[in-house]
Amino acid sequence: MSRLIVVSNRVPDPDRAPAGGLAVALQAALHDRGGIWMGWSGKSCGEDEPGPLAFQQQGSITYALSDLSERDLSEYYNGFANSVLWPLCHYRIDLTDFARRDAQGYFRVNRFFAQRLLPLIQEDDLIWVHDYHLMPLADELRRLGVRNRIGFFMHIPWPAPDVYLTLPMGARLLQSMTAYDLLGFQTENDAANFRECLQRGELATRRAGETDFVDTTGRHFQVGTFPISIDTGNFARLACQGVRNPTVRKFRATLGEQQLIVGVDRLDYSKGLVQRLNGYRRFLETQPHWAGHVTYLQITPKSRSGVHEYDSLQREVAELAGHIGGTMGRLDWAPMRYVNRAFSQQVLACIYRMANVALVTPLRDGMNLVAKEYVAAQDPEDPGVLVLSRFAGAAAELGPGALLVNPYDEDAIAQAITQAVSMPREERQRRHARMMEGLTHNDVFHWCTDFLGRLAPSQVLPLKGPPN
Ligand code: G6P
After folding, report:
1. CB within 8 A of 257, min separation 6: which ones?
2. Would you state the pLDDT for residue 183?
3. What is the pLDDT of residue 430?
4. 197-217 burial string, b = 16+ CB within 10 Å, else e?
5. How does pLDDT run across 219-231, given as a tens digit for each residue?
6. Global confidence as pTM
7. Residue 345 is inside which H or E element, if any?
8. Burial code of 284-317, b = ≥16 C-beta within 10 A, e = fewer?
9. Going from the N-terminus, what domains does the chain have, and what CATH number goes with each?
10. In a mutational test of the pocket of ligand 1, which residue from 84, 154, 155 has the highest number of ligand atoms less than 8 Å from its CB?
11. Which of 136, 175, 379, 408 is most buried by its number of CB atoms within 10 A?
């Protein structure tokens, strides 16, 4: 079996237990095949050029990490990746900053990663590149003579062609992506948008009745849908075991008989936090008898503080949360708690299990794994209700069991909260069972096996779970 090389901007800390299902699954795949995980170290080397890669060995996995200079971080990470591609792919053309200088930095850092990776690649290695930071990486590797099978998975949405085509460097970037052998997307809608961009740009033709494309040089590549998932079994176990956790027990005691409504999101404008908080306020205004009987906990770790929009959002959401507390609260009741920090997987799993309702209402999201984790964490006998945005990738799978909402419609959010807090147990059980059925079948190991099986069809690898 070939070795695997995973390349992503963020790499899990080799010294810590992986925090999420994606890291667990990729580490399991790397562990079985042996291989390398390459990416950014998370550190800056200031004004200097980055030194050689730092290697760290863990069993059969080699971590190969590179620092980036302040200029790289400003142009590639804060610049083109997070101020152009991120807003564009989340349909926020209004926030997209099309600075050409940053685009050059983005291509330069991709070239740099390719040059650093080149000496590590062996003839049969499979290479799997992740996410919007590294879209042109395969093209840079091909220019250096790499002929290995290279796959790409896009974790965030691929926008409608009319949105994508506003990007000045769009054609060049799209052209570079035809250098992959397999391009994977979260939903059918994303894959269809990507295919249409290719066809409108006349960069590739699709052969009638077949799934693959042929680019202008005659190379074949495939475009497919691979909805990412979680380590469902492990997450359900964590949620059951964590009831003894002291942090969770203390929190439980503060709730009394109140129903708990929870939201967990990175602080990001794509998450629809302002509309969600306004939806909750509308719920309290229109259903005043619920005052004193519900608490809304919004957990929102800060992120990407180097990008201007994130700082202003922090002020806006904090102000709104304070306003709801100030105007709706009573001496003996606080309607909401807004917390800007991250919690361990175990604490989150328990909070999900005790929450009667989860609000997952992004304006646009590639998948949204919080929605899946919330479902996996429930007690099947007395499950909570998921209120889910129809614009999250997860809606394609969880739609029939969740309460789907338009995340821009604050009245619809208020109505969904009313329906969720009053839903009879039998209906909750029925909805939960439908969602859980899909999650049991499509866990993150299935996702990983499916992608690698398509990238290298002769080497099907059934991944059963994390290494012991
Ligand atoms: C999204 C992206 C990931 C990214 C994560 C956190 O989930 O798809 O690639 O790592 O956000 O963002 P950050 O900028 O902190 O890496």
Report:
1. 293
2. 97
3. 98
4. bbeebebbeeeeeeeebebee
5. 899 999 999 999 9
6. 0.96
7. helix 345-354
8. beebeebeeebbbbbbbeeebeebebbeebbeeb
9. 4-229+445-455 (3.40.50.2000), 232-441 (3.40.50.2000)
10. 155
11. 136
The protein residue with its alpha carbon nearest to ligand 1, atom 4, reads: 10
Per-residue pLDDT tens digits for 262-314: 999 999 999 999 999 999 999 999 999 999 999 999 999 999 988 999 999 99
Q: Which of 154, 303, 310, 373 to mutate to test the pocket of ligand 1 (most atoms within 8 A of CB)?
A: 303
DSSP-assigned beta bridge partners for residue 36: 5, 62
- Quick one: 117 exposed, middle or buried, by C-beta within 10 A (0-12, 13-18, 19+)? buried
Please tell me which residue in 90, 130, 133, 155 is annotated as part of the active site: 155
Q: What pLDDT shows up at residue 9?
A: 97
User: Separation of 266 CA from ligand 1 center, angstroms?
Assistant: 9
Burial 326-340 (b: 16+ CB within 10 A, else e): eebeeeeeebbebee
Tell me the chain's radius of gyration from C-alpha atoms: 23
Residue 155 annotated in active site: yes
**303 alpha carbon to ligand 1 midpoint, in Å?**
9
Other beta carbons within 10 Å of 99: 14
Rounding to the nearest 10 degrees, give the CA dihedral for residues 4, 24, 224, 33: 20
Quick: pLDDT tens for 131-149: 999 999 999 999 999 999 9
pLDDT for residue 468: 46
Q: Are strands 220-225 and 212-215 parallel, antiparallel or unpaired?
A: antiparallel
Question: Looking at the predicted structure, is the pLDDT value of residue 319 above 70?
Answer: yes
Tell me the average pLDDT of the chain: 94
Q: Residues near 29 by Cβ (< 8 Å), separated by ≥ 6?
A: 4, 6, 35, 448, 452, 461, 463
Ligand 1 centre to CA of 332 (Å) is 39
Phi, psi for residue 256 in degrees, rounded to 5: 60, -130
Residue ranges around ligand 1 (CB below 6 Å): 10, 131, 155-156, 303-304
DSSP, residue by residue, 67-110: EE-HHHIIIIIIIIIIIIIHHHHTT-GGG----HHHHHHHHHHH
Closest CA to 35 of 24, 27, 43, 25: 27
- Interface predicted TM-score (ipTM): 0.99
- Crossing angle of helices 232-241 and 21-33, rounded to 10°: 130
Chain-centroid distance of CA 399 in Å reads: 18
Q: Which of 365, 432, 443, 450 is catalytic?
A: 365
Question: Residue 122 C-alpha to ligand 1 middle, in angstroms?
Answer: 29
